[in-house]
Write a structure and sequence with these properties.
4 copies of one chain form a homotetramer.
Chain A lengths: L1 E6 L4 H11 L4 E7 L8 H4 L11 E2 L3 H4 L4 E4 L6 H10 L3 E4 L9 H8 L6 H4 L3 E2 L2 H10 L2 E3 L3 H15 L8 E7 L14 H4 L4 E2 L7 H13 L5 E7 L6 E8 L6 H8 L6 E3 L17 E6 L6 E8 L3 H15 L16
Parallel strand pairs in A: 1-2, 1-4, 2-3, 4-5, 5-7, 6-7, 8-10, 12-13
Antiparallel strand pairs in A: 8-11, 9-10, 11-14, 13-14
Helix pairs in contact in A: 1-12, 7-12, 8-10
Chain lengths: ~350, ~350, ~350, ~350
């Protein structure tokens, strides 16, 4: 039984880890930290967990976490990089859901995240936790940088095209839409229901932090430089990301077959049948990415529709998938849920 | 492995049975009927089930269902009563999620449901499937009448008070609020998002079909006639029922203790700590009823807050709970999920 | 042309005043205060007002407001009571949308609002701004205490019954449901869309600040003490209040006629035809209260359904209605809008 | 006073016309047709109009409409084309909100709409009712083809770029998101709140009927053939369209200035200041289009954000704007409302 710790248990990715791990047969949450709520039962903050979680919040101190086999960081950016080295030194595996170890170019990271990196020496070691790309490396890793929510949806949609070199990689567009839980459990006016409900808007059009992360993964897949315009939007729903991806085909190809072959055997990527549309409700609460492939009017523009639940395949579910791989458990253990429809 | 059939698989209680049974270790769905969609794969209608359900819709004919151990009716009112006798005769247990067998007084049933009852002789045999009241009878039953969604939330909230005779049973009020999935998967204008979204209304104030069902259960618990005003409301959310119950205390009593004792050991009824409020999101997707008990300003009015997910504890989850009891499985098997928060 | 000032222009009642007054033919907003946003254009905060409002936020200082004919306080409780006397002394009429002057019993006010009252001497002078009760007094007033949102919906629903003495005033129930804009434009976690969306809950069951205000108005109407249980609920929509009111009839009466007569000629209270249900969407964005009257199964329980838009008839619209009366304008001027359906 | 008739008064564009015209000082609705509801008061179907509309639905027959000065068709496609000629012959001006007269190439229209055109001879005469393009022609017109909702948002966003020839017109992308009211007031399962709520999906990716309409308008503006990929999405809100438009710049240009100059003096197109994002809530219920212009990271991709209320500037508001022009009234009469925020 894996003893798991969660640093930052009062945010949405934290409580989502608790939801998933509560029923995981091979892992047990032994520590959940929260500076603000230390000493209080976790299920007082989250009544959905009553009867399923007896843990009390503890302060985020190293000694509280050192007995864990794995520690998840469900923290704002900038926390994991200050604690990871010490945990690794004590033999604890680290799975970071924040952005601290995602970008290999530390200068680039510092530019986009506006702080100095506290553990640049660990960046190279960290494995980018996208199992559909890095499965073998994840199995060997001590430190996982879990992909962001947008990057997961966008990369899984573009990868087959880039790997096969069938599109113009210089002019790609990712028009992405996220539910409001992506903004986290933070008291901020734009996330109020009176502000975000019944409305739709783009944000960060001049440049969003997920852009360099997406570009990095796409360039690795393409083996060449990639030109990407990424526009995120806020959608009046709680969970879900829908990425609509546009590329220009450079050679004739059976797109449906290309995607089906790429993801054959992948438990958590589901290529829908030709002509389908993907709908975020069909992956709500599940660890699955569903993808639909279109070539409107037989023209040279490919349109890929890629949907995930931002808190599951876009965060905590994918983190548990990585944990399973790191500890030799079946990859899908604890993740065999069905989307909550309706 | 229980072979389960579902009649009426294209409504919300039908697909919710499919969601729950897809991961149930002791049961397997072998037949799903739909006249309209016969011949089509179930997971084409419900892409959330891709990879988890290989069944094809069949017409709702007896021969297709006779090999089942149990058949669930997730049909409109009036269907189960025409097929139940034949299934029982072939040794198939019947779990009816519709209203056909809920009301013991057939005349009363016919008045409220506006049709003649096709199997009045089975009404007496049918066991009302509320495990917290009828657990032993359910274990022995061949035919279960699953409680309605409002009746589940309202009865679980009032029962401890009525059983102990501490309230004026002649003047009770149940102000209940339901999400829109309670109206079913039917193409009707009032259920459109443009109509039901961002709005709130009462309906059926002059008399709702769940009133006689609730009153019947409450009278059994009270051992006396009960006067109940029941007002249902439509709430702009998909899942969830919140019942706010009002009664006048007739004797001093420790209300919190009374509720905790009544539901001690009940896996799916959770009495919240004193001073709490119940929130439908904390039971979304789970089979749990959460109850909070209040006595405002120490006066003689009791206020009970009772929440369920109308499709789970209010329908399909409770039906599976009954199935588990009927077949000697652990009562909570396949129902050990955590509410989907946020 | 009335020169109007708004203190606290960055909350929802403030921007709603701006929306209404932008098109009011007899008034002009000349000052909008905000300490935090002083110096910034109002339409930068509220792009919906671009082209309709040229005002720049100023600090909330007396000299900035002294040239106004009327000043609205759209502030948290505790602000208006510190500034009202000085404004009145300079000949400015004051319309307070907060709770500072609503409760005539200053001790009671201090108990519920948890602070000392800064202007107890003005409390007696203040006129409770419910035109359907106090029209003539409002016309003469210098200082208006605008009713709260719940109190407006609940009082308008109960008044005809209490005034005629046809119900048991000792055991009344008001089960009220509000959209989330009622919580204001404050950065608080419970108001996040991820928390309040797709969920329903009661709050403040042990005692809500609107209770003494409602009780005060009802006792004036009844001419006797009133026993009221008031339970507010949070509903996953932005605007709207639905109050469901329960009372026991003490004498036979034609309820529909009683309500129609009481509100005959009232421009902003609309008694729906018998058998109707009220729906908050039908008053969204309008200054109207719609009321439906029911007597289920001809029993002795009356059920009144009363709906308003909490920001209009429950706050800023009613405040403008009072302003019109105070300045001798047609009562409905600037308020002749149609609800935004769908 | 213009006597206006509305054919098809029971859909969302019909009731939106009623909402706008109820307060229009220069027009009066004298006839509203509905075959299904003939004989019933309009305000029984729409209680939001109580006190503001005394009209009774009549059958959609010519004689009922011949006394009107203008008749609006708020009907499904295929109705206006069968009645327009007769109305014009009787001197009635026709404003068609459906698609019947939008496409100049009748063969193209018949291909996309799947029926024979009943009045091909009128197609040439019909004026496309986008005032920002065709103002003078609208003033002279007898027959107006009102633009579709998506076409309005997309064209207003692309026009300045196409007219100035600064983008590659061969590879344009319009990623558009609509609220569910765009699907109309039709009893269809995909529009149920349980289906469309809390979810996001694309639809019609292989080809949507608004594509040829958008392309026609864009080609007129560009003076050349246009290559457009148009992907519509369904968004879990009631009102609003957000079009995100992508193009490749072919020459250096001050984009912000270009847009501000193009729409200078346009009452209903508002170019937001540089760096802004457009939000559908800021135009909810108003006839305004708000546009934001971006050039991410100074690259060669232009991103235009264009928002409207699909029922106002995307349908009924724009239709009234056209009526005002046709009858010599101030263009904005009856349309001077403020968006309903929050």
């Amino acid at each position: 039984m894996i003893r798991a710790g969660i640093v930052g248990g009062t945010g949405y990715t934290g409580v989502e880890l608790l939801r998933i791990l509560a029923l995981h047969p091979g892992a047990e949450v032994t520590v959940v930290t929260s500076r603000a709520d230390a000493g209080q039962r976790v299920d007082k903050t989250y009544p959905s967990l009553r009867g399923l979680c007896d843990v009390v919040f503890t302060p985020p101190e190293l000694d509280n976490l050192a007995d864990c086999d794995a520690v998840f960081f469900a923290t704002p950016n900038g926390t994991a990089m200050t604690m990871a080295a010490d945990l690794l030194a004590r033999g604890v595996k680290v799975i970071d859901l924040s952005a601290d170890f995602r970008i290999k170019d530390v200068n680039e990271w510092e530019k986009w995240y506006g702080m100095s990196h506290a553990s640049p020496e660990l960046v190279a070691e960290a494995v980018y936790g996208l199992p559909e790309v890095n499965r073998e490396a994840i199995k060997q890793a001590r430190l996982i940088a879990c992909p962001g929510c947008y990057p997961t949806a966008v990369q899984l949609g573009f990868l087959p095209l880039l790997e096969q070199g069938v599109i113009d990689a210089g002019h790609l567009i990712a028009d992405a839409k996220s539910g409001v839980s992506g903004a986290g459990r933070k008291a901020e006016i734009p996330s109020l229901m009176s502000e975000a409900g019944e409305s739709f808007k783009a944000y960060g059009v001049s440049g969003h932090r997920h852009l360099p992360e997406i570009r990095q993964g796409m360039q690795l897949a393409a083996g060449e430089s990639v030109g990407l315009t990424f526009v995120p939007h806020l959608t009046p729903m709680i969970r879900g990301i829908h990425a609509t991806l546009y590329a220009k085909l450079t050679k004739p190809v059976d797109l449906q077959a290309l995607f089906e072959q790429r993801y054959q055997g992948e438990r958590f990527v589901d290529v829908l049948s030709a002509g389908s549309h993907a709908d975020t409700r069909n992956v709500r609460g599940s660890n699955r990415c569903q993808i639909a492939v279109h070539q409107p009017q037989g023209g040279d523009t490919v349109v890929i529709l890629s949907v995930i639940d931002n808190l599951v395949k876009g965060a905590s579910g994918q983190a548990v998938q990585a944990m399973n791989l790191m500890f030799g458990l079946p990859e899908g253990q604890g993740l065999e849920t069905v989307a909550l429809y309706p």
